[in-house]
Fold this protein.
Amino acid sequence: MIPRDYAADLDHLTAHLTARGWEAIEAGLEGTDFALQLTGIAYRMLLSPGRRVLLSANWRAEHACTEIQGLDPHNPQIPLWRAQADNLPVHILAAAAEAATEPGESPGPLRLLREAGWTRQQSATAAITLLPVILSDPSGARTAAATYLPTPAGPDHGPWLIVRADVTTTARTRAFAHTSPATPGAVIAALATTA
């Protein structure tokens, strides 16, 4: 297997998003002790048009970690939601970033996954009162699972875990993503369904 060139991939993702109005943010690490620790790491931060979404990437030869966050306009230090993707290729990350900036409220991920032909897997019955919801694509190479969280109003969907066995990675790493409960359905669907 030929290892991916993560630095070139990150440059491609940056060029793709900046062509669509995203702004690269300088980390200001040059000349610092911390910058010396970044040897062999490609680090990038990009801010969406309207400054509502932040993409941060920490990529190295053996592992690529990308996080997309929805920013609170009143307090951008606290994200409204998160989606972290590990070892996913540029076109999937670009689709998720673009989905994060779509105007209006996104339909829920269950609806979007079902519309894409995904089906619910049967969970084995157990003593667990709140079983996870697990869906898979028609080929079975991709799965998306959501857990339930107890709330005062009753069970609510919690975070999602998306596993992409269809993505080739280097060494023994896996391609997957996980999200916070409030992550928009369009972002979850993009991470799961983008071919």
Notes: Residues 6-18 form the longest helix (13 residues).
